[in-house]
Every structure is written in C-alpha cells, then in structure tokens.
Design a protein that fits this description.
alpha/beta; four-stranded mixed beta sheet; UDP-n-acetylglucosamine1-carboxyvinyl-transferase, Chain; 14 helices; globular; single chain; 2 domains; about 425 residues
Length: about 425
C-alpha cells in the first residue's frame, strides 16, 4: 500500500493537457477489434489497468495484441474462432471487462469462467442475466456476484428487451451478444446512458435507433477497422474540477470525447458558475470529439438529479468536492447506483469530506454538501476506489493543509500518471 501527500496552493495555472485515451471507448475498440476477423489498429488506447484487463482477456481467447508504431495492432481469428480458455479469465478490477465480455461469450461457442479481484467480486452482476438469457445466452452468477460462468450457447434467438436502468454496460453486453443471433433484436431503457456502442454499431451498419432510447441490433460480423480513441472526459473531469475550484485558473483538454452522455459534469460546472467552452473538432464512429476549456470562477451550489445524474455518475465524487468550494448547498439525488460501484461511493464521499472538515449529509440515494469555500488537510481513505482517490487529490489542491491519500496507487486503474499530471499543472 502506497500513500501520497498533496499540499494545497493558492497559485493559479493556465495549461493545456492531453488526457489519456477514453476508457469506455478503449474497452469497446479492443472488443470490436477482437470480435472482427483480421487485422485492426487502435490508437490512443487508455493505459489504465482496467483496459489492460480487457486486452489480457482477449489474448486468452486467441487474439493477438501487439504494440506498434503509434498504437496497437489487433489480429483476431474472429469471435466465431476464439480459443477455448483453459483457465478462468481474470478481469481484475474492471466491471466493464467482465460485463461486456460476458455478453460476447454468452452467445458464443466458448465457455469460460470470469473472475475478478475482491472489489469486483463484491459487485452485483444480476442485471446481466435476464437480458442475455432472453437471447438464449448462457450465463450463471454466484448468488448474483462473480465468478460468472458464461458461454457455449446451443440455440440463440433474437429478442426484444427493456431494462429498468440506464446502464450502458448492460445495454452493450446485450448488443454484442445479439450480434451473434439470426435476426434483429432490440433493447430499450430509460434515458441517460452512454450510447457509444449504439453509435459505433450504427456507423458500421449493424443497427439503428427505433426511438430515442430503443436500439435495434442487426446481426453480423464486425469488420476489422482502425479505431482512433479520443481523450477520456471522465479523466479530464478531474482537471476541469481543479480549474473550477481555483478562480482565475484555466485548463484546456484537446480532442476529448464529448458524447452527450459523457459531459454532464460540464453542465454542472456551468450551472455552478465556471466558464465552459466546448468546440467540436472531429468524430470517431459517430461519436463527437472536441476541445474543452474550463476557467475557474466564483461558484454557487446547485441541485443534481434525474437524467443529469445518469450522465455524471462517475463524476459525482467531484461534484461533492466542487460543492465544498462553492457558496450554498449542493444536493445530489437519484444516485443510488453509487452504492454499488467500486466502493459504496456515497459512504466513501461522506468519509472523504468529513476527513477534510467539509459539511455533508447523506441519504440512501445521494448527499448534500454545505459549501463553505474551503477544506482543511487530513487523511483520506480510498476504499480501493480510484475515483475517490483522484477526487481527494483534486480537493487537496486547494486545502489549507496537507492531505494524505491512503492506498493512492489505486488511481492507476484509470490513469497511472494522474498525480504527476495534476501537480504538474502548477509547475
């Protein structure tokens, strides 16, 4: 276990930072390339450990992934010819790896056991079962949790499914499984999900929208392709927050994904009074890409609820931090999903703020922050949750005393060089 101490400052900064490749799109790029037959190429791949888990899993199934000039070459026999693994596939800490791979394998000829670390093993997988089984996919949990046993489906048939939560991971697992059926399937859910997979499938002619939330999957082989992964807005959010709580500071993050389902945090910062500029510059597989500039201003408390919560779920620890430096009350509702992330994030957020002398009260599905405009030093437990560790580091940049982050290296799950990048914005 490695602890890290961060010292706050009143200095301002003006920097441009290229953040790591988008984690969500990196998982999808590797899976699309792995399901395709032939050679694909991926540039801008996330260096986080979670994406490494997806790469390792695919290698176990007979997919070659080699570092090349400027990116990774992915050579696959195609999902129809993946190898039968002889050992369980270790998904590490990555729920995305486990859920998406479970979808692909559930309707495949391969059978596999998917395992993970202690944190992942404590995360529920029940939401996958009914959608995948509706296709004839094979999936069994261990009392609702990992390990999962998946695959070797005998008969797979199209299905029309509606799920009760706006979960991109469940939607994607179903969509990748449905590609291997004979006949089209559909999936629907409440709004607020990340629609990367739908955009990519539509771009390659394997599906289309039937309504704003219902997507049709047309079965077929994913073609080999080049995937240019843009920067990760969930990583950039930590830098945006650092600028927002430092009046007069400014950060530019070029070429990041600005998928509408990914930039709810920018809307929140805008509502709180930060100066936000977004310029669309490009698109990847139908996903918009652009440059984002955030300038710190005096902030005010806001309420975050409904669809905005679904598009900001990973950034809600940052909402708590920014709320502490704002004036007034910041309230988050309808965020019960935080209870079943890498940690119980509502409890973890509460303990983080209390450790730094912040004012917070919690509910079953959210929290309220009393914005005092300052936080003190202290020691923050991370609960093996990379987003809590990183949010604490952002809070520390403006704290009146030193902040010690316990088990700080957990940030490597998504961004191995995060602390150096954050602290380097002032140098």
């Amino acid at each position: 276990m490695i602890n890290r101490t961060i010292t706050g400052t009143t200095d301002t900064f003006a920097v441009s930072v290229q953040v790591p490749g988008d984690k969500s799109l990196s998982h999808r790029a590797l899976l699309f390339a792995g399901m395709a037959e032939g050679d694909s190429f991926v540039t801008g791949l996330s260096t986080g450990l979670d994406v490494g888990s997806t790469a390792t899993a695919l290698r176990t199934l007979g997919v070659e992934i080699r570092a090349g000039k400027g990116g990774e070459q992915v050579r696959s026999p195609g999902v129809h010819a993946w190898l039968q693994p002889t050992d369980p596939i270790d998904c590490g800490n990555s729920g995305t790896t486990m859920r998406l791979l479970a979808g692909v394998l559930s309707t495949s000829h391969v059978t596999a056991t998917l395992i993970g670390d202690a944190s992942l093993t404590a995360r529920t997988m029940t939401r996958l079962v009914d959608p995948l089984q509706s296709l004839g996919g094979v999936i069994a949990t261990s009392d609702g949790f990992p390990p999962l046993t998946v695959g070797r489906a005998e008969v797979v048939s199209p299905a029309d499914v509606a799920i009760s939560t706006a979960s991109a991971q469940v939607r994607t697992a179903f969509e990748l499984a449905a590609l291997q059926c004979i006949g089209s399937s559909t999936i629907d859910s409440p709004p607020g999900f990340r629609d990367h997979t739908e955009r990519w499938l539509r771009a390659i002619g394997l599906g289309d929208w039937e309504t704003r939330t219902r997507f049709r999957i047309d079965p077929g082989m994913i073609p080999p392709a080049r995937f240019d992964v843009p920067g990760d807005p969930s990583s950039a959010a930590f830098l945006w927050a650092a600028a927002a709580i430092s009046p007069g500071s400014q950060v530019v993050t070029p070429r990041v994904s600005i998928n509408p389902g990914r930039i709810g945090f920018l809307e929140i910062l805008d509502n709180m009074g930060a100066d936000i500029e977004v310029v669309v510059t490009d698109a990847v597989g139908g996903d918009p890409v652009g440059d984002v500039k955030v300038t710190g201003r005096s902030l005010r408390g806001v309420e975050v609820a409904g669809d905005l919560v679904a598009s900001t779920l990973d950034e809600l620890p940052l909402v708590a931090v920014v709320g502490a430096y704002a004036e007034g009350i910041t309230t988050v509702r309808n965020a019960g999903e935080l209870r079943v992330k890498e940690s119980d994030r509502i409890e973890a957020i509460e303990k983080m703020l209390v450790a730094l002398d912040g004012g917070i009260s919690t509910t079953e599905d959210g929290f309220s922050i009393v914005g005092t405009g300052f936080l003190s030093g202290g020691t923050v437990e991370t609960f093996n949750d990379h987003r809590i560790a990183m949010a604490a580091a952002v809070a520390a940049t403006r704290c009146s005393g030193d902040v010690e982050i316990v088990d700080s290296q957990v940030a490597a799950v998504s961004w191995p060089d995060f602390y150096e990048t954050l602290e380097g914005m002032w140098s």
